[in-house]
Amino acid sequence: MDIQLPDNAPQSPDPIRDLLRNSKTIAVVGLSSSRLRPSNGVASYLQSAGYKIVPVNPNETEVLGEKSYARLEDIPFPVDIVDVFRRPEHVPRVADSAIAIHAKALWLQQGITNEAAAAKAHAAGLLVVQDACMFLEHKSRRPL
What we know:
This protein is α/β, with parallel strands linked by helices.
């Protein structure tokens, strides 16, 4: 796991716990309606933990009872965390969108890294997490 805190972030012994505690809305890029996909299992868990999940997938109309949006820019309300289930080559475009919608954080799921996109998001003031499963990180920090 790689964490890049915004330059103006307050000192914290556990910035991941702070992010998860202070966030309410998570846009899940690449969220699939298939229960066999990791994105569905992670998003379902996060939803059961009280987060508002926002599916972002142009191939879906609804996932987990929530309207799906084709792009982050189409979401008509603020998003705290952009959680990415896309291959590394797609991350730069997602990072640009996360910056454009003024998300607080860009989270790349386990196995996903893109240093250039992470650096750009970090420079724009986002907290960036790479190569980490939000489900596992949330579960290990319970109760939040």
